[in-house]
Amino acid sequence: MSDETTSEPAFEGWGATDPKQWLGNMTLSPFKPKEWDEDDVDVKILYCGICASDTDSLKGAWGPLNSDPSEIVGHEIVGQVTRVGKNPANGLKVGQLVGIGPQSDSCGECQTCKNRKENYCSKPTYNFKNTPFHRGNGAGSMSRGGFAKYWRGPSRFAIPVPSGLDPAGAAPMMCGGITVFSPLEHWGAGTKAKDVGIVGIGGLGHFAVLFAKAMGARVTAISRSESKKEDALKLGASEYVATGDDIKKTAEAHAGTLDLIVCTANPEELPVTEYLPFLRPEGVFAFVGVSPKPIVVPGGPLIVGSLAIAGSNSGPPDGIARMLKFAADHNVKPWIKKWDMNDINGAMLSFNKGDPRYRYVLVNTDNGGEI
């Protein structure tokens, strides 16, 4: 079905024009979607997770908020395709269930795009921040995220959701899931990295425990206090280590027990060096949480242990597709709480208080999403 046979849906979304507005005062407004291109799809949004990148954007952390009509974010989208252009990617058809993550487009011309690693493109278009499209009829149009009724964008970034996966549970995988799946997959959790540590048991950390366990790794959950121990063990961790304030002393007591650490915590200053004793020779410390202050690490421990410190940037469409298939095949089920999208302001207030255990999912009940 092409654009010639499908009427335009009503595009409207929940947004803010002022950083003070996001916390309890977001409003629903109509918006103009990007100009149609023949590789685009329209998606009726059923579910959309809430992620800290969304709230950071609404706070103004990524720059001024859009005022035409408002900053509409949301980048953990699952919905149903309602319109397909003449040149769809992924074999998409009307009625198909798809997921859309942080990225809604890339330039398509650079070497990283040609290598199908679009998450490294230097001209990305995002769903967690209203940013311009750079190509086709839509060049100059602003992106809109998933706190909305409908999403329009290039079909390359709309990933089919496997039939065995709960659609609501798939939503937070589109960012929270792929953020940790990528480094776990890249560094060989369960194969090369038999023993994996997860630092920080929050929204990302809970996904990391679930995926690392499903990959066959022995998982050690690492947190400052004992408060998340019961949850971490239920999620699949074999061991729980509460470091307290003396991380280095705790790490030395567990010296050489881990092949890989995925750090999901994002404190003001990340004390990477204090975690290094956990690692065996040739171990890797990979971080996905962004700490404001620079990371300072002396070269000695890295050289002596042949250790590596790495970051990880979400994942490309192909990586998201692999993650969704893996989650369906291994019955990975995130811990979520659903909120009616019409109560987005209540959800934001609760999110801001740190209530989620461990991901919030907005449900578009008006579109047929199920609470």
Automatic annotation (TrEMBL):
The keyword Metal-binding belongs to this UniProt entry's keyword annotation: yes
Top-rank lineage group of the source organism: Eukaryota
Protein's name in the database: Unplaced genomic scaffold supercont1.7, whole genome shotgun sequence
GO molecular function: metal ion binding; oxidoreductase activity, acting on the CH-OH group of donors, NAD or NADP as acceptor
UniProt-listed InterPro entries: ADH-like_C, ADH-like_N, CAD-like, ER, GroES-like_sf, NAD(P)-bd_dom_sf
Residues of the Enoyl reductase (ER) domain: 24-362
Pfam families in the cross-refs: ADH_N (PF08240), ADH_zinc_N (PF00107)
Cofactors that this protein relies on: Zn(2+)
UniProt KW Transcription keyword: no
Record keywords, A-Z: Metal-binding, Oxidoreductase, Zinc
